[in-house]
Amino acid sequence: MTRSMRIVSPNSVRAHRHGFQGLFLLSALCCLILIPLAGGQTAAPASAHPQLKYEKFRLKNGLEVILSEDHRVPLVAVNLWYHVGPANERAGRTGFAHLFEHMMFEGSEHVGSKAHFRYLEAAGASEINGTTDFDRTNYFETLPANQLELALWLESDRMGFLLGKLDREKLANQRDVVRNERRQSTEGQPYGLVEEGLYHELFPKDHPYYPEVIGSHRDVEAARINDVREFFRQYYTPNNASLAIVGDIDPARVKALVEKYFGTLPQGPAVPKITATVPTIAAERRATVTDQVELPRIFMGWIMPPIFSKDDAESVLLAQILGGGKSSRLYKELVYKKQIAQDVDVTEQSLLLGSVFELQATAKPGVKLEDVEHAIDDELNRLRNEGPTQAELERARNLTEARIIERLEHLGGFGGKADRMNMYNHYLGDPGYLPKDLERYDKVMTGSIQRVAQERLKTSARAVVYGIPGQKVVDDPPRTKEEEENAGDEKSTVAAKGNDEPWRANPPPAGTPSRLQLPVPNSFKMENGLTVLLLEQHELPVVAADLVVLSGSDANPLDKPGLASFAAAMLQEGTTSRSALQIADDAAQLGASVDTSSNSDYSAVTLHALKNNLAPSVDLLSDLALRPRFEEKEVERIRKQRLTEILQRHDNPFETGLTVFTRVVYGTGHPYGYNEIGTTASNKAITHEDLESFWKAGYGPANSALIFAGDVTESEARALAHKYFGGWTSAAKRKPAPKVETTATRAIYLVDKPGSPQSSLLVGGVGVARSTPDYAAVEVMNAGFGGNFSGRLNMNLREQHGYTYGAFSFFSYRRGAGPFIAGGAIRTDSTAPALAETLKEFDRIRSTPFSAEELRLAKGSVAQSLAGLFETSRDAARTATSLYVYDLPLDYYRHEPSQIEQVDAAQVTAAATKYVKADAATIVIVGDRAKVEPEIQKLNLGAIELCDEEGDPVKVESAK
Question: Fewer CB within a 10 Å sphere, N or C end of the chain?
């Protein structure tokens, strides 16, 4: 995982279809707090429930401000909500709120064009983004606490001084970007058009929730500059926004800064009221949508009560009980017992104008959707007639509580603490609504859930959409060449909204860095050889406990790729004392999330649990890792699931591209030449004995680490390790990293996806091992090349040319030399020019050294963001895992900033010269061959080899 993965760079995959659910349960996290309100009033706690510590006040211009101290790590989250989304849009302007979200990153009066990301990346921001949901738009950044003033300068400047910088050129560019995003996130994703079809059946055409949040191609293309300016004047005002600041702050100082940066911005006009209402469905609605998918999938949807209204809490828990994981009813019946569905999922998206209860299930190969639908209906009828059990209700509550506590570990971002408080404030005007939210869920009874199922989940009140394999039908008109000449008098419309102040012209300097150093884990070794690492974080009652075993896919026999992954998957499917379903129920009852996985370097059993359930949760963790059963019937069930999963991977162009890329770069004679799941042939060939033998030979205390992070002391960690792992014995040993041979010739591979709206483009080759002495230089080089949003590659392909929603590059560090990959999802008609520009950037990173500004930005983005590695217990556990797996010193992250700071431009160029080679690059393209191959041939890059989704050669006639 590369550092760039921690930066949410290109304006995000939107929050559409995945909005907040109002599930904000919390154990005794905080003491009771008296909350000062504007006007000097004091609100008393509504109940004895725990409360979030915060302070809320309002500026004279109407901006609401929420402050919350949280000194876990030296970070601060700035989270700004504008109370506008598609719910506020008018006919013919679908997707306008989301389009404007993109415009907010284009540069304001004092910040400069496209400079927003550059400032924040240089400051070491670990999260930068904006998202649009049906009811709101938000913008957020999490960055070192001493850089808070920079974030306030940036956010206030685009609130007060964006208007003068909005022009037709920027609008045209972002229309292209948004349309590329739609191609990638809706049209290019399996079943994306099918889910959109569900919303088209649930809501009438004139309802704000009928269109995708991202809008249609035609409406996005129809947006004009005066529309954009008017939207900004109406909705992007202090009196239509709320600002949450959470983290390592001094509230008194922050109040003064907020007043300085936002207090002089003028209040805007009154915001028009939303007039749409909650629609009703009187008779079942049905539709069929074709898509380029291997398997059919059924979608069902119901319109439920608005967020925080009567029956909203019941609806949320009902979704969890019905299809919220392996302990849910539909999983047990359809996926586990009857084995007619590959997967099933039920969610409740709680919204202002009618919530959406969505159920989806993918049929197994050879199973008719009608049979899946009948099985779903049988389970719905049973729930209506009998109601849930008390145990089901308790599991749903426990899982919900654990999930929300985990989210609260994140200071900001989408769904973090700052965002949560802003959400409460948006819908209820009360950032501290948590205790009342707890009361809502406390009051839910099995009878009330049964009543909601009877009254709300009627067959006559639902929409049903079948997604079946077939042609992908996309309405994608060409871009507009010129805007109409009479678009309006620019000079009369571009006046800035704020009162200009000369001091805003320069970014504020960074404050004094926090004295807190990056954490160093404690470590001890048990008598049986098991290494134990501990990172204590006691602010929240949560713990991550991971068992990491140095036996991953690099240990797979060459004729059985996927063996490590198969063995890891089986750990959840039964132990000597628990069945597969008992494991799921026990985890849910504890409110714990337990997972198993493998990658190139190791296998792992990971746990996230509440402190008060830590001991039984670790007991469950040890049972999975130390006593798996590998029962024959379970092996065969999981084998069928994995074979179907391999088939489904063909639906995703990027996954297909990765499969082919690793295959052709490393070959079939190296374990890195296969993805984790392996191949169809290998999964058919792997036996029960293979799985058990791999576990016995690879899982043992001498090559494993037990990692604790969170609310646990060293004495507690020692006691838990001794009790649950002290008797573990095995002969497994740590194996050396696999050797990697490199090639030096360019090759082009094309996988044909007829009708695909985009091409998945991957360019690169063999990279470096994590142990390379060039690590610091490679990290800095990649940040400036394609790891950051403001890197050269993204600025070229996205911002300059509009070929893609986002271009990227990354080095996949492993114990052996992992791959280096650059690319993106490219508009089909731009595939060839995007490839040409990518190769130009490969050459330029070698021939044109970083400027002083590029070097400063790249180094800052790497070094200053390291605190984000310890923000949550899961983050801290993953960070400790990397120390163990790559045999790094325990205090490694204390010294990494200085190593990064020592990198100079010459070292960056040297690293690029060694590892970024256009003339020896492997190029993989997954797209519409008939449209892209002729144009690629004109580039004269060499012969194009056609292959299938697994990388095997395909012989077909030349494209015409």
Answer: C
